Amino acid sequence: MSAMDDLLAYQRETEALGQVMGRLGWDQETVMPRGAAAQRGDEIAALEGVLHARRTDPRLGDWLAQAVPTSEAEEAQLRLIARSHDRARKVPGRLAAEIARVTSVSQGIWAEARRAEDLAGFLPVLGQVVDLRRQEAQALSDGGDAYDALLDGYEPGMTGDEIGALFDRMRPRIVALREALRAAPQAPDLTGRFPKAQQLALAEEIARAFGYDMARGRIDEAVHPFSSGSFNDVRITTRVNEVEPLGCLYSTIHEVGHAGYEQNIDQAFGLSALGQGVSMGVHESQSRIYENQLGRSPAFCHWLYGRMVDRFGTLSVAGPEEFARAVNAVTTGYIRTEADEVHYNLHIMLRFDLERALMRGDLALEDLEAAWNDRFAADFGIAVDRPSNGMLQDVHWPVGLFGYFPTYSLGNVYAGCLHAALRADVPGLDADLGRGDPSAALAWLRHRVQVHGGLRPPRETIEHATGAEVSEAPLLDYLEGKFTALYGL
Ligand code: ZN
Fold this sequence. Notes:
mainly alpha, 3 strands, binds zinc ion
């Protein structure tokens, strides 16, 4: 056995255990009994201890020093394993396990607090989470920027300064578009009852149309839809509201974008460091392009309108054009996950500034709610009426995901880049989408992005796919073009 063989064999077991960890999280969000929360925290902490020990194993350093790569893929394997080894070694094992335990428990406390609108009841455990993640950030950053160290865990190579500059460039055009759309007449809401079984059947039909392989996946219900797993077990969840069917359908398309990425990675990379999406931002680019540029396109809305009428009978909108405007309604709301494409990035900008200040010690936890509410009023023009519409709305901070939010906007930016290139290469795209057939677009994404897994760093992954530098311009051009046409501005 060469050092490379030993290293890859060892990594395969680590990746397998990582998949088990992910499945524990899936279980917690779907079918775990509520009374099991504390025990699950212990289980996850124990497994995290095993994973941390493996990622810091001194033999890794020896193998990494001795292994001789013979291909681009092996070079990438070494780069990614070395990165994981390096990050893991900087964080004491007890701290890693404590973060895993506390964030698992915190999630349950947050869910209760959100239901009860009890911010004060949640702040103590949030304080623990913030403190632990700051300790981790300090360990990771070698005296550098704490926020950048966390962001780098989700989007390797990205910095807070780059995100800040990106947002400064994006904000004026987004705000101008939002202001222009304020006066536009909105489509009526979809009203009526949409039985759960019919919604789930249509969601599965659309998931299959978007290439989701149900032999290697499954669809369950969860409060917050997510996808989970890699390789040959990639699961998604959705949510159903019987008076609002679009949430189920579009969250399904979104999660199928994540799952499709994982399912389409080269099988040769399975259970290796290359065998997952390369970053959260690139991951989100796939979910967003499936959901928005493809799924919310007027052409696809035309097809979906017909399928909705087949399943649910006459709708409260006058026809496919009005349905497309209902799907793309632009309204100011509190909730990020329900935000339209125009408002979405403004939600992320708010969270980015607050969490960066929190991690750098520039904002105290006691002042977070007031800071949130002031900023929300300034950016959105409405006052936050209750914590579940404000800082209790998202699970990210409760589970310690500081540095994660910017990857959503990066995903939108990357999706804009990919969409521009895709349009140039697939001229019949709208005709395809009008028949409910995104297969040519999916083949392009699979071939250009998805099969490669972790082969190239995030930005290179996108630039390799498009042949152009990453820029926010294609996203902003797309948003302005789409919404001015939809609303006849
Ligand atoms: Zn997503």
